[in-house]
Structures are given as structure tokens and as C-alpha cells.
Amino acid sequence: MSARKNTARQGPWANEHRLLAAVVNDSNDAITVQDFEGNIRFWNIGAKRVYGYTKTEALKMNIRQIVPKDGRGDALALLKRLREKEKIRSFEAQRLTKNGRLIDVWITVTTLTDEAGKLVAVATTERDITERKQLERELLATREKEQKLIGREMHD
User: Which parts of the chain have pLDDT scores under 50?
Assistant: First the structure.
């Protein structure tokens, strides 16, 4: 009886695996898993929000389909570096949404291994930073205008 009460108090999170699955699936950030050829194997709710593709659509895709053409070589090189067990720092990149909009994302990459330690996939967490990058560009443009104005005033 006490075990039942304890489980009831914990609610739906009595099982740690269910808790972790809910965190990953319901994250606001895009969380994806791809094999080393770039084929998408997992796509969470956050990925649908960020990119617009449903899970059903995404699981038929290759990750290169959301990478702009000029970045596809880099994406392939990244997969190769990961396959060679190189550690990759988080980085900024641009990606394409379902409607063709180019967005800025912050990407964290993690390799996944099986029980034997063999590399089997790549997991990514991707945060849409488009609004922040736009604000940075606007701030930089404002600073440049101010510097030019100060320069003209000093010259005059």
C-alpha cells in the first residue's frame, strides 16, 4: 500500500524514463536525432514549432533539407567529424523552415552510442535565435550611424 501511495504522489513522473522522454519530447527547443547519413530518426514538438514540419514529415527527410544550399557541405563535414569522434562546440548556423524562411539557430550536438560504445546517431538541440540576431544587427547599425554622426560633427 505504501508503494502505491508513493507512486501516486509522484504522479506521471514515477518512472524516470517517462520523465526524461517528456522533457525531450515537450522541450521548446528543437531536439532531433539523425543517423550519420543525416536521415532524421527523431523529431520533437519543439522541432515542429521551430521548423514547421510534423514528425511524420520530418522522419521521411534528411537533415540537409533544412540546411541552406551553401551550408550543406559544412553539414556533411560536421557529420564526418562527429563520426571520427571529434568533440564539437555549440555553434550558430542558419536553417530553412518548411515555408522557406531562413532562421538563425544555436546548435548543440551530441553523439549517441549503443551499449557496446559504438557511435550510432547524432542528437541536436537547436534554439531559434533569429530575433536576437536581428536585434544585434539593428544595434550594430545604430552604433555605426552614431559613429558617423560624431565623426561628421567633430570634422565640422
Answer: 1-5
